Amino acid sequence: MTETRPFPFSRVCVFGAARSGVGAMYLLRHHQVDVTLVDERPPMEFRSLMRRIKRLFVTAHFGPIKGDVLRGCQAIVVSPGIPLSHPLVQEAVDRELAVISEVELASYFAKAPIIAITGTNGKTTSTILTGQMVADAGFNAVVAGNIGRSFSDAIVSSQEDGRPTMLVTEISSFQLESIEEFHPHVATILNISRDHVDRYPTMREYIDAKFQITLNQDEDDYLVLNEDDPIVMKLAEDTAAEVYTFSLTREVEQGAFVADGRIYLAEDGEIQPLCNISDVPMPGSHNVANTLASIVMARRIGVSTDSLLKTLAKFKGVEHRIEYVATSSDGVEFYNDSKATNVDSLEKALLSFQKPLILVAGGKDKQSAYERLNSLIKERVKGLVLIGEARPLIKKAWGGLVETREAGSIEEAVKIAAGMARGGDVVLLSPACASFDMFKDFEDRGDHFKRAVRAYVEH
Questions:
Q1: Distance between CA atoms of 80 and 177, rounded to whole angstroms?
Q2: How far apart are CA 265 and CA 251, in angstroms?
Q3: Domain spanning 110-314: which CATH class is it, in words?
């Protein structure tokens, strides 16, 4: 059991009323902290929330920020979608208020060890797989963070049931920016590649945010790093934690690695074969890497090899991550990879298939260098269907390489892609873009795609 730290503030402003902010509000009120909830979106978007706010005696300010909303507050909890450069956050800094991220807030009240997982890609898959390994080993595994439900909400709703609890959290760079005392017992950085250029003007700023995950770890903690990623491995020299690594290409001293088509575990000077790569149920070498990371994390908290292998045998992957949807009567397979919101994720998806691909891509541009994938597009993609605001940019990069068509909706894209495909081909939604131009989030985009595919296949 982890001892909680005393929370030092009696009145807090929570900035942002989405999932993280609402979770923070509930957690603070659960501990009798007065809360001012602020969100710049119009009040009409919060009608259902307003009833709950009144019952909790929370002061709310929705719409354009007017007046002194920070009056009486000693700290501000900033939701991950809000940059620290925002004027209200800067006003809080000028007033010398504490600026706290939502995961930092939740960690004040966490009564169990924390496993924290970050990286540009693969976080969700590795988090869910690790959580399942932990649960199957007999722990009360609570999976939260930048996935499903907020860390704060998980702290409020988790119930002790006699089993030891383990908090398995997916943590984004946004959530790590303002970490001060957040202390995971096991932390992992899966990989780092260019992303979120609208938030981080330089790569150095993005890397520094990711590296915050080990800020408070000590010699009794573990840091799991990707030995195939030179950026990630720089952190091995700048952490107090005991370092374990994983690799697809080389043998490691402590951790897990791949050789001769098998996964091996390296611990205490001994090397133990675990399973064949073919036993990993998710397509793509990137998912093998995610699996290696999960194996190392699970082992660090005492999960037996027999237990984790049983979990791996039944694990079917994660929704919206190269998720099989259906096969049409003429043999065309459909896969949903809506979580691929950047070029690096798309690259991994393209490398996961050997069959000819009809790629559905596009959405809200993230200032991506699409041209970086030109040779892979030409090699792997048979046809391209573009959606969303980024259509002109992607068409400029790839339109001359393969047959390219455009669609005004995801439903139209499915019909066009199916018409371009032949038996044995794969239609893959892997957008390489954010979803916010057409959808609420990537889950919403993936759900629309799956409904459209099933409607097409059935009819």
A1: 9
A2: 10
A3: alpha beta
DSSP 381-427: EEEEEE-STTHHHHHHHHTTTSEEEE-SSHHHHHHHHHHH--TT-EE
CA distance linking residue 267 with residue 247, whole number of Å: 14
- Residue 260 CB burial class (10 angstroms; 0-12, 13-18, ≥19): exposed
Answer for the pair 45, 56: CB distance below 8 angstroms, yes or no. no
Long-range pairs, 5-8, Cβ under 8 A, ≥24: 5/108, 5/181, 7/31, 7/33, 7/108, 7/109, 8/74
How far apart, in whole angstroms, are the C-alpha atoms of residue 134 and residue 308? 8
368-411 pLDDT, tens per residue? 899 999 999 999 999 999 999 999 999 999 999 999 999 999 99
pLDDT tens, residue by residue, 405-431: 999 999 999 999 999 999 999 999 999
CATH code for residues 11-102: 3.40.50.720
Residue whose entry in the numeric block shows the structure tokens 């040779």:
375
Q: 110-314 with 323-458: one CATH topology?
A: no
| 398, 384 Cβ separation under 8 angstroms | yes
Q: What is the pTM of this model?
A: 0.76
Question: For strand 333-336 and strand 323-327, is the pairing parallel, antiparallel, or unpaired?
Answer: antiparallel
Q: Taking the domains of the chain in order of start, what are their residue ranges? A: 11-102, 110-314, 323-458
Per DSSP (E only), the strands in 216-301 are 222-226, 242-247, 255-259, 262-267, 270-276
